[in-house]
Amino acid sequence: MAQKPSIPKGTRDFGQREMAERNYIFDTIRSVFRTYGYQQIETPALENLSTLLGKYGDEGDKLLFRILNSGDAFSGIDYGQFRLEGDHYNSKALSLKVSEKGLRYDLTVPFARYVVQHQNDISFPFKRFQIQPVWRADRPQKGRYREFYQCDVDVIGSRSQVNELELVQIVDRVFTLLDVRVGIKINNRKVLTGLAEICGFPDKVVDITVAIDKLDKIGLGNVEAEMMEKGLTPEAVEVLRPVLLLSGTTAEKLAAMRALFGGGSVSGTVSETGLKGIDELEELFGLIEAAGIRHDVQIDLSLARGLNYYTGAIFEVKALDFPIGSICGGGRYDNLTGIFGLPDMSGVGISFGADRIYDVLKGLDKFPKDLGSATRLLFAVMGPEELRYVLPVAKALREEGVAVEIYPEATKLKKQFDYADRKSIPFISINGSSEMEAGTINLKNLETGEQKAFPAHETDQILSFIK
Amino acid sequence: MAQKPSIPKGTRDFGQREMAERNYIFDTIRSVFRTYGYQQIETPALENLSTLLGKYGDEGDKLLFRILNSGDAFSGIDYGQFRLEGDHYNSKALSLKVSEKGLRYDLTVPFARYVVQHQNDISFPFKRFQIQPVWRADRPQKGRYREFYQCDVDVIGSRSQVNELELVQIVDRVFTLLDVRVGIKINNRKVLTGLAEICGFPDKVVDITVAIDKLDKIGLGNVEAEMMEKGLTPEAVEVLRPVLLLSGTTAEKLAAMRALFGGGSVSGTVSETGLKGIDELEELFGLIEAAGIRHDVQIDLSLARGLNYYTGAIFEVKALDFPIGSICGGGRYDNLTGIFGLPDMSGVGISFGADRIYDVLKGLDKFPKDLGSATRLLFAVMGPEELRYVLPVAKALREEGVAVEIYPEATKLKKQFDYADRKSIPFISINGSSEMEAGTINLKNLETGEQKAFPAHETDQILSFIK
């Protein structure tokens, strides 16, 4: 009995049209990465669990796909030892017994592992990009997959803000080429640390940032109330109020923040870390101005992604004309490779969210129109003689790089026309005894109906008609 | 304590140079596939085990990488039930309990699954190609990996020999572009069946073929001895002798075989299947002659790959100037999708062995020389003013598609030159106050030592110097 075929939840097949559209996104991004001197690497889908475990928090460990050891995975194990109660067993401990490998969860940890493992072969600063699938045992839902591509660009081994600038330039160029209007928001983790310091609650960085993030939605009063719920004193809230009321140009905002961190707040506390953050932002925005960026770039002090690992710049990119979350994000991390024994390597990177960018281009109808129709010309076939007649013509066109098909069976012409129609092939060529006698190739434009014959050996003339 | 990072046995990291070389192979193959109207698809790495199990024989089942179910994989299982003796457990049965998904083992079964699952959205004949990694829990050894790319092209839904011809043309074109001399060998499963039929041992196809395959190595007498060891009678061996002595042109070989299958052998037995095989080979070689193939194409009656599934043409391609196994292989299968409930779909395909083709190109030194050096020009940086001065120049060059880097730190020039050297960057630009005053960009060819200055805004002149 034949089974009805299906694929696991949260995974996808990509047909020809989706592939063409996805390749358009990847090719565009890749071409921009290359013009900035970033080099492509690939790492294996299988990594040792010792490389992956503990790098993504407890929640991440649970979402790793683990591979059963091959061979006799289950022999020699004392199952009683893992029994908890009744039929329940300690899955975490047992799975470590029967599994030593897992599937790549992101591209960042394998990149860190790669840098440490190959450090003697790498020229630092090392600029790499990587476009590969990752796997997460997340609950599948709309827009969230268990297997999806990530598209990361990182440079490691340089603390210069020129790197941050180049990432902003890359984002700017990619979305210019894709014809999508985006807003780029930039924050700096040191500024967030500085805010927590000057208000006297250095351990409440996350709470403070999360509250500030809601300013647009819930208003000043509610943000301040939330901060107090989280344990801040009224005095601390008062210190932060000027930040919440911050307005003006980027330069004015930076100047105001510099004054606050320099001791000008109600608390009078100086934050060296906050000042360092302002230095970095000032340098970066100076470079951005010198380089010229088409898209909107703003400081956003509430931007709080990756607070657990970013130590400097934080980036987020959103599409302005399509309602979806961030389509790009990243930041600077000062000790990514420390976990693998190579300390003091500062890096900065961003990740392009291919699936969301796909949805944006689809939603805004921004894919080029001719991506789907790969084949330009179909030779309809009426018999073995006609087939042999067109073989050299098809070959010559293919060697010029044009996609040409020969219908493989001498069936009814209706069926062959249908095939051209379903595959959106724009030209058809039907040749019988009269063409063979005259040594010509008959071509028809299926859209306009225009029909024309050319000498069979005049590849250039045929090319110019079907191009 | 930091761990020493490593990757699982049988997997590989690919650095920038290998990526460039591998992409050169894949891009070449892909571009040829496209000119024949083949369309790219991708399927998920994760497949349901029900899709994979039983498709590759018992040995294949053992080599599948299985994914542990996420969540409480080990709870609710009565382990005693699976105990064999002592600490030994029935791994096969237990792994089915804790695992429902596996990693793709090849691209053929997922392709069959795809065709059946999407049959209503597909135009037949369906021409697809697929370039993705596969995983096998094989014992790793030199040249055999547990994770490697396959590169498959198949057409399904047409019995015409035009499809076989196109696959031969694709092989011919790919290796012409890669500049590797290859020999293409073709056999037909029906001919092998016919041989077994006329000698009276229709169930010994594999034994007979394996013996014939050794003719070049061990000689006629030993081949005949081996056939008799396998149970053939002296009379049967006598029937096959003319086949072993077959010589002459392809046309002569086909004519001789046709006579044998038509009742002209010592046994006098007629094999309709054998005659059908000769019909197919004759048609295919006629088309090959009409199309014109550069590489050597031969009939090889001992070619016996994929005897378990191929039903018509069998292909094998070897490099003529480099000692390695086959670098390409394939054939026709008449019922690939039957296992998933779609009967009577005939298909034919070939697979390019990317890793072996890589070894051939490496061994014959056939990779283009400029693949490794991605970046054309490095702007050395001496200070913040100089940096800002070159930013717009670098941007203009990048928008022309040229890979340009700006060294991110204003360190010693020696260090910046070293960076250019290690990354094989052919041009460097060093600009100080005199260039800034003159509004020029100074360029140096690091190979020839030639040095020249251009107006900073003359992008075209700069381009023509560094191209």
What can you tell me about this protein's structure?
- With 467 residues, chain A is an alpha+beta fold.
- The first copy, chain A, has a domain at 373-466: Anticodon-binding domain (Rossmann fold, 3-Layer(aba) Sandwich).
- Helices cover 41% and strands 19% of the residues of chain A.
- Chain A is built from 17 helices and 18 strands.
- The first copy, chain A, has an 8-stranded mixed sheet. A 5-stranded mixed sheet of chain A has the order 15-14-16-17-18. In chain A, strands 2-6-3 form a 3-stranded antiparallel sheet.
- In chain A, strand 17 (440-445) and strand 18 form a beta hairpin.
- The radius of gyration of chain A is 30 Å and the shape is globular.
- At the A-B interface, helix 1, strand 1, strand 2, strand 3 and strand 5 of A face helix 1, strand 1, strand 2, strand 3 and strand 5 of B.
Integer average pLDDT of chain A: 92
Write the CATH architecture name of the domain at 373-466 in chain A.
Answer: 3-Layer(aba) Sandwich
The largest beta-sheet of chain A arranges its strands as 1-7-8-13-12-11-9-10
The residue fraction in helices of chain A comes out at: 40-55%
Shape of chain A: globular
Major beta sheet of chain A, specifics? 8 strands, mixed
Largest interface: A-B, 117 and 116 residues
CATH topology of the domain at 373-466 in chain A, by name, is: Rossmann fold
Low-confidence stretches of chain A: none
Total beta strand runs of chain A: 18
Radius of gyration of chain A: 30 Å
- Look at the helices and sheets of chain A and give the structural class: alpha+beta
Strand content of chain A: 15-25%
Helix count, DSSP H or I runs of 4 or more residues of chain A: 17
Give the oligomer, counting copies of the same chain as homo and different chains as hetero: homodimer
CATH-level-4 superfamily name of the domain at 373-466 in chain A: Anticodon-binding domain
CATH C-level label of the domain at 373-466 in chain A = Alpha Beta
Give the terminus-to-terminus CA distance of chain A.
49 Å
